[in-house]
Each structure stands twice: as structure tokens, then as C-alpha cells.
Amino acid sequence: MGGKIVFKEYDPDQLTFLPYKLEELVPTGHPVRIVKQVVDAVDVKPINRKYKGGGASSSHPRLMLKLLVYGYLTNTYSSRKLEEQAAQNVHFMWLLGMKKPDHNTINRFRSEKLSGVLKQIFSQIVLLLEQEGIVSLKEAVFTDGTKIESAANKYTFVWGKNIKANKDKMKAQLDELWGYAQSIAAEELKDTAPLEYSEINPEKVKETISKINAALDDKEDVDKKVKQKLNYAKKHWPESLARYDEQEKLLAGRNSMSKTDPDATFMRMKEDHMLNGQLKPAYNLQISTQEQFILNYTLHQTSTDYQTLSSHIEQYQALYKDLPKAIVADAGYGSDENYGVLARKGIEAYIKYNTFDKEQKDGIKAFSNDSLHYNEAENYLVCPIGQWMAHIGNGQRVTSSGFVQLISLYRAQNCEGCPMRGVCHTTQGNRVVEINHSLRQHKQAAKERLNTEQGINLRKRRPADVEPVFAQLKHNHGFRRFLLKGMSKAEVEIGLLSIAHNLRKWKT
């Protein structure tokens, strides 16, 4: 037979003689203490300048910053959830000195007061990391990108190609109407001309439709369909063109955007739950890390990584008045433009080009442009059977980012009867090749650099340094979608997330 069961005393209605001190409920070394310590050490004047004098008193910026940073550190992103935590959670209550800002105050501070200035706070924290010898801003950094879904509705596409197609269709129909009007009212329209494509705008289209209507006004037997089309055009086309013009301004050269978040671009998402790479409104987040600490973050509207590196490096330099010794990145960044930018800034580029891995495994592909020997002194190529390929001219190619590439053209002297003809090239006449000498030199230098002992070591470190940070942000901390719409607000969210990540890692 067992002994008597004994329970510890429990009386929820009994009052303690003295209330608890919150200080006693927060363990030494708890992350909330780290947040307080670090935020107390940074200069918040950049945030203070966002406030206007007069009016009712405001919650202190340092208090609000602590609330948001600790919120993002504990995966609490919603302003309503943060309001709830401030009133109920002992750690938040201790951090805020029992102050309880409401969700509107929290949201306004995050959206308005931190916009454009949070990076200055973030950089101060990175400099504190450097002072402690945890990171070095002068050494190699590891750069990579990931796409994070916008807060926009995913079914609100606006496509640049569709706008152009609709304007083309409108122009063609207007030309058709103009042609019809001229066929029966040539005298009335003799001093005017049809619109050029560049004049397809609300005012000009409205004016042209009025002229056609006036010319046909007293004419008999005008086709009913033409009258219907003119009435429809008069009612709808100027309004549609005004909408297209506004959308084109918001697109600013991009191929797509969302109606509910015009800053977001539709990008193919790897993590889509349907596993089909669905297009969703998103931003391209770029980070540079060292020892898995985030040293720099930038947000971009382009889905291609190679177009982001130049501005990403410029921000690094603006934040720290310094540059890293080297940048390590995958082949998505290996472009003529990027190699050139890093070379001019004195940064070593440990960046693969698109065929690097295949060349390492299989060698340079036979008969490819890269396999042709180049005589720099006399500016000619040598074809696979030893025939000279003479320089026949130069050209230019403009990339999607606006970068101008210089292209040299070379032609073989006589390909007729060549035993290699079938595998060398299949076009008629003698083979002509295009060579970008700048890219060729950059690729050769990158290949040599990547295959040094240092290069091999950095290549091995890259996936273990930067990629786990994305895993932390997206999977461990569930941040796969922004809460706020617009580029500046999304940047604030990434800034808070980056600060929280660094503090979490710093003291663990």
C-alpha cells in the first residue's frame, strides 16, 4: 500500500504580503536584458528628429524601440499582439517600466518615426559588435538574397506589357476611326493629322475623338458601329489612359506591380506552398553577413540578384564609411557590371560566374566562345582547327539595368569544308562570334581567385554563413510575409528583424 499523497500548498485567493518586484522575475542574462542594455547604449537622436514640438506628450522613442526590437526577437510582429504583451507579459512589463502603449501608437511609431532612420540605429549596433571583436567590417562578407512576400493581395496584378498592349490596341482603333472619318469627311479633317503613338494621352485622345465626331456630325449614313465605338471611346478611353499613365509612373520601368502595394513587384517564390513557383507580389531582400551576423541589408524591387549588388555596396559604404576587403557570393551576382564595380572599389570578388561550377567539373565546353584562344597583342581569335578569326568590328549591348557592354566581333576566314563544321557552328557562311573582353578578363580573374586556397575556403564558408540566417528569419521565426505595405515600411520591418537577429545571436 502506497504512502499518503501530499500536494504543495496552493491558495490562489491568498494575497502576498508584499507585491513582487518585476526585477526579481527577470533572470540574469535573459534576452530582454540584452535588448535594454543595447538600446540604452545607442543614440536615438535620428528618431527624435522625426517628432514635431507641441501637442500632447509622446511615448519615449527609446521605450518604443525596445518594445519593437524585443517584439521581433520573440516573433511578436503584430501591433495588437505587442499591445497585449505590454499589458500581460512580465518581460515586456519590466522592459517598458509598466508603460502600455496602444496598438495605434505602436503602428505609427513603426511606420512613421522609424522610416528612413532605422538603418542608422542598426549600424550603431553593428559597430558595437565590431568593438567587441565579434565581427570586422574590413574583412570578407557573405552576400545573398531571398524574396519575401508583400502584404499586398496576391491577385492584384498590373503588368507593364498589358498596359502597352492596351495602348497599342487603342492606337490601332483610333487610326481605324480616323481613316473611316477621312473617307467620308476628308474636307473637314484636311488640316489635321492622326495621332502619333507618343501622343496617346488622355487630352490628345479626347481632342481627336471630338474632331472625328464633329467631322461626322452632319454626315448621313454614318456606320452605326462607328458611332457606338466613338461613344464608347469618348466615355472610357481618356479615363483608361489616365489610369495607364499613373500605373506606368508607379511601375518606373518594372514589368509588374500590385494594385494594393505599388512598390511590390511580382516575383517567383521558391517557398510557395503549391511548390509550383507561383508569382506573388514581393521584395528582394539582400543581406551581407559575417559569422552569421547581419552587417548590411537592402530591399529591392527587382527579382534578379545581380542588379542589386551595386546599391547594396553603396549603402554599406554610407553606413560605415568603409568597405569590406572581399565579397563572397554565388553565380547570381557574376556579371560584367558587378565585377567592374568591385574592382573599382578595391574589393576582391569571390563571385562565381554562371558556368564556373560546370567548368570545374567538365572543363570548358569545346567549341564555345570561351574555348577560343585570344591573341591580345594582335587582336584576333584562333578557331578550333587553328584558323585565325579576324576582328571585324565592335558593338554595344545594354543590359536590363542600363549597363552598356562593349562587344567585339570576330569572323573565321573559311569554314567551307571544315571537318569540325557540324559541331563548331551550324549557321550559313563563316562563323562569327561576339566577345565581351571586359567580362572575359573578369571571369579569368575570378576563376583564378576562386581556386586559390583562400578562395576555396571562402566558397566553403559562404553557404554556412549567409544561408542559415535566411533559415532563421523565415523558418525559425516565421517571417515569410511583410505586415506593412510600401517599400519604406517594409524596410523598417527588415531593420527590426535584423537588429533582433543580431541581438539574439550576440548573447546566446
The gist of it:
The chain has helices at residues 22-25, 31-41, 45-48, 61-73, 79-88, 90-96, 103-113, 118-131, 160-185, 202-216, 224-251, 309-320, 336-344, 356-362, 421-424, 437-450, 453-465, 467-476, 487-506, and strands spanning 141-149, 157-159, 256-258, 265-268, 279-290, 293-300, 326-329, 348-351, 373-375, 380-382, 388-398, 404-412, 432-435.
Walkthrough of the structure:
InterPro entries: IS1182_transpos, Tnp_DDE_dom, Transposase_InsH_N. It comes from Mucilaginibacter robiniae. Pfam families: DDE_Tnp_1_6 (PF13751), DUF772 (PF05598). This is IS1182 family transposase. With about 500 residues, the protein is of the alpha+beta class. It has four domains: about 20-115, no CATH class; about 140-150 and about 265-355 and about 445-495, Nucleotidyltransferase, domain 5 (2-Layer Sandwich), CATH 3.30.420; about 160-260, no CATH class; about 365-435, no CATH class. The chain contains 19 helices and 13 strands. The protein has helices at about 20-25, 30-40, 45-50, 60-75, 80-90, 90-95, 105-115, 120-130, 160-185, 200-215, 225-250, 310-320, 335-345, 355-360, 420-425, 435-450, 455-465, 465-475, 485-505; strands spanning about 140-150, 155-160, 255-260, 265-270, 280-290, 295-300, 325-330, 350, 375, 380, 390-400, 405-410, 430-435. The strands form three sheets. Strands 1, 4, 5, 6, 7 and 8 form a six-stranded mixed beta sheet that branches. Strands 9-10-11-12-13 form a five-stranded antiparallel beta sheet. Strands 2-3 form a two-stranded antiparallel ribbon. β11 and β12 form a beta hairpin.
